[in-house]
Write a structure and sequence with these properties.
The protein is of the alpha+beta class and 459 residues long. The protein is built from 15 helices and 22 strands. It has 3 domains: 100 residues, Rossmann fold; 70 residues, 2-Layer Sandwich (Dna Ligase, domain 1); 244 residues, D-amino Acid Aminotransferase, Chain A, domain 1, CATH 3.30.470.20. The strands form 6 sheets. The protein has an 8-stranded antiparallel β-sheet, with helices on both faces. β1, α1 and β2 form a beta-alpha-beta unit. The longest helix is centred in the middle third of the chain and has 19 residues. It is globular, with a radius of gyration of 21 Å. The chain binds adenosine-5'-diphosphate (ADP). Adenosine-5'-diphosphate binds next to β12 and β13. The site of adenosine-5'-diphosphate has 19 residues, from β12 and β13.
């Protein structure tokens, strides 16, 4: 087994990986930017190395700095967490060329899935349904207008290199389309250095359902069931749960098989997620494959009893999966609430600052993944996620009840967080009945349409 792993990340996910390493008896190396000097991941790791200035481009995204740290600390693997360099094929390649194992899929898989337009083609060939839309990149305004006419409004323009909702724009008519197309291109260029965009039919009120994939290097690929991540703000997840409520067994079986087929088409290895949108008639469509650990992985861990980070490390080491699809068991229901330092009453405006008072919940069937402590300052430079609360019940209603108890206990002040919004959502009859779609938050907040905006994203 690996003797030392560097974690090229920060916050709760760096701690999550440190914990898995400790359970496996592996030493850990944290890296940090100057702003994160006093962070918990720095304190919890066996060693810590400063890799640069506060802006992520000069630290957590600085490949030469991270590789130097890995060489100085003499690690044999790097875990990228999520976000930052987790889906950067170039980084994965550099790790391999330095004889450092990248804990994730092969660079070719990251590249293939990371080009969302190419990924759609790969899925078409693998007979996995994709949302109706353009074949490949849209060249100019005239082509955008032609494609929109063919599929009918509304349409959504997406960046081929997309993520975090950046470069994503919805258009309801020809007039809006041209502007949306140009803005999406510009946003994509700024965020990813690639202005390529494609067009999909915009589905009204879909559900976001994704499948957790586990694949070893020896050709074994299986899934660990579905997560429903339909509760979103600006097309970014806020609440995730597993299993997905109210969907037929037949659909779950079909989608699980399609997810495995998708992973095979990407020649997938390690842990990954195949995301779909599902309409009211239970038709499902691939949207993307995330080639990394997801923020919401704990809900799957809670109901399957499988530690996904340990699996990632074992797979990267070359071990075979210890079980087959038939042996995967699902126990009860789990829900995760993302606690972000944001003000839900003011357009989810980031609310960074010093945490003066803090109490995080505990008790039976509650898990908290977090890096904050009393006296910790939430930096405006990074992701706004400050804690993940996860509740596990024998069924969905029990999980909701336990989550409400956990939310009630939670005190994080004086910064604003999403805690009160979560309480509001979990008490809504529509949520309790499991009738949620991606426009749910918008509908309960009664505000204007929440277009995807420049928000910092976890993963
Ligand atoms: P990103 O990688 O930027 O997060 P995704 O393709 O994963 O983008 O989509 C994120 C979310 O945006 C989805 O969960 C869904 O809410 C919304 N979305 C994406 N594509 C469509 C579509 N064609 N129709 C309706 N909603 C969509």
């Amino acid at each position: 087994m690996f003797h030392k792993i560097l974690i090229a990340n920060r916050g709760e996910i760096a701690i999550r990986v440190i914990r898995a390493c400790r359970d496996l008896g592996i030493r850990t190396v944290a890296v940090y930017s100057k702003a994160d000097r006093d962070s918990l991941h720095v304190r919890l790791a066996d060693e810590a190395i400063c890799i640069g200035e506060t802006p992520a481009a000069e630290s957590y995204l600085n490949i030469p700095s991270i590789i130097s740290a890995a060489e100085i600390a003499d690690v044999d693997a790097i875990h990228p967490g999520y976000g930052f360099l987790a889906e950067n094929p170039h980084f994965a390649e550099i790790c391999e060329s330095c004889q450092i194992k990248f804990i994730g899929p092969k660079p070719e898989s990251v590249r293939l899935a990371g080009d969302k337009s190419l990924a759609r083609e790969t899925m078409r060939k693998a007979k996995v349904p994709v949302i109706p839309g353009s074949k490949g990149i849209i060249g100019d305004q005239a082509e955008a207008l032609r494609v929109a006419k063919k599929f009918g409004y509304p349409v959504i323009i997406k960046a081929k290199a997309g993520g975090g909702g950046k470069g994503m724009k919805i258009a309801h008519n020809d007039g809006k389309l041209v502007n949306a197309f140009l803005t999406a291109q510009a946003e994509a260029e700024a965020a990813f250095g690639d202005r390529g965009v494609y067009i999909e039919k915009y589905m009204s009120e879909p559900r976001h359902i994704e499948f957790q994939i586990l694949a070893d290097r020896h050709g074994s690929i299986l899934h660990l069931g579905a997560r429903d991540c339909s509760v979103q703000r600006r097309h970014q997840k806020l609440i995730e749960e597993s299993p997905a409520p109210g969907l037929s067994k037949r659909l779950m079986k079909k989608m699980g098989e399609a997810a495995v087929r998708a992973a095979k088409a990407f020649q997938y290895e390690n842990v990954g997620t195949v995301e779909f949108l599902v309409d009211e008639e239970e038709r499902f469509y691939f949207i993307e494959m995330n080639t990394r650990l997801q923020v919401e992985h704990p809900v799957t861990e809670m109901i399957t009893g499988i530690d996904l980070v340990k699996e990632q490390i074992r797979i990267a080491w070359g071990q075979k999966l210890a079980f087959h699809q038939d042996a995967v068991r699902f126990n009860g229901a789990a829900i995760e609430c993302r606690i972000n330092a944001e003000d839900p009453d003011h357009g989810f405006l980031p609310s960074p600052g010093k945490i003066e008072t803090l109490y995080l919940p505990g008790g039976p069937h509650v898990r908290v993944d977090s890096h904050i402590y009393a006296g910790y300052t939430v930096s405006p430079y990074y992701d706004s996620l400050v804690a993940k609360l996860i509740a596990h019940g024998k069924d969905r209603l029990e999980a909701i009840q336990i989550m409400l108890r956990a939310l009630k206990e939670t005190t994080i002040g004086p910064i604003k967080t999403t805690v009160p919004l979560h309480e509001k959502i979990l008490n809504r009859p529509r949520f309790r009945q499991g009738r949620v779609s991606t426009n749910f938050i918008e509908s309960i907040m009664g505000g204007p349409s929440l277009e995807p905006q420049e928000t910092r994203k976890a993963g």
